Amino acid sequence: MSGHSKWNNIKRKKEKTDAQKAKVFTKIGREISVAVREGGADPANNGKLRDLIAKAKASNVPNDNIDRIIKKAAGEGDKNTYMDMVYEGYGPCGVAVIVEALTDNKNRTAGDLRHYFDKCGGNLGQNGCVSYLFSEKGIIVIDNEDEKNSEDQLIEDCMEAGAEDFEINGEVVEVTASSDPAEFREVREALEAKGYSFVEADIQKVPSTFTKIDDVEMQEKMQKLLDMLDDNDDVQNVYHNWEAPEEE
Fold it and tell me: Do the Cβ atoms of 162 and 177 come closer than 8 Å?
């Protein structure tokens, strides 16, 4: 993601309100439940679960909550059958948007998303209409609060962990790793072993091109679309190529 837009997004993730955090907990909890039912409750034997636990910790989900979700899923908890769905579309001014959902009713979810896009001046498209504008990369954002680790130390640790690339910006460090789940996991776990904590750590879709919106009203509609998607419990991840204006 380009320059200031990327760092603004990271800043917003660090500054989530309690209500936003609760929404994140709910979504990650659903992912963990599905992973447990598919691969078992032991993280040592379930790589996907291990990845989601790391993702949950990066989102500040308390360990007690994580343990409770795993135990519930392994027992007689939520027995809904969830489907992984991917939707593609355009926001205002042609911004490319990909939405990943985990839903027990794909008709409901598709209807909700179509309403959001229409309401905000965009449209839900066909599969493949924007995915070619994105590539998958493993993204780990290290929380280097108060710049407690020196730049030299960060560089050394990232290289030793097997990072493909990294970018240091004050209190946060964005590490790029392989999108292969096993290779990504090795890099993440190597950094964890060195004592680092994360703002985020997962495999993401990264845009190759970016779209600016000059009109303020259209900017507001684009932000409204992202907010509506974020508020939907079925929506797990949203990727877009909007180059948002820098926050004052």
Answer: yes
Q: How far apart are CA 211 and CA 222, in angstroms?
A: 11
The alpha carbon of 47 is separated from its chain's Cα centroid by a whole number of angstroms, namely: 18
On whether the CB atoms of residues 200 and 1 are closer than 8 A, the answer is: no
Question: What's the pLDDT tens digit per position in 135-169?
Answer: 999 999 998 888 889 999 999 999 999 999 999 98
Tell me how long the chain is: 248
CATH superfamily of 3-74: Integrase, N-terminal zinc-binding domain (1.10.10.200)
The structural architecture, per CATH, of the domain 135-206 is 2-Layer Sandwich (3.30)
Buried b (16+ CB within 10 A) or exposed e, 63-76: eeebeebbeebeee
Closest by CA position to 49, among listed 25, 68, 72, 66: 66
Q: Residue 44 is which amino acid?
A: A
Around Cβ 90, how many Cβ atoms within 10 Å? 19
To the question of domain 83-132+208-240 being in CATH 3.40.50.1970, the answer is: no
Q: Which two tokens mark 242? A: 């909007």
Share of the chain above pLDDT 90, in %: 75
The pair phi, psi for residue 55, each rounded to 5°, is: -65, -40
Q: Which two structure tokens, joined as six digits, stand for 60?
A: 């500040």
Same fold yes or no, 83-132+208-240 and 135-206: yes
> Between 216-231 and 106-119, two packed helices, what is the crossing angle to 10 degrees?
160
- 130, 94 contact by CB (below 8 A): no
Task: For residues 91 and 88, give the distance between their C-alpha atoms in angstroms, rounded to a whole number.
Answer: 10
**pLDDT, tens only, 91-105:** 999 999 999 999 999
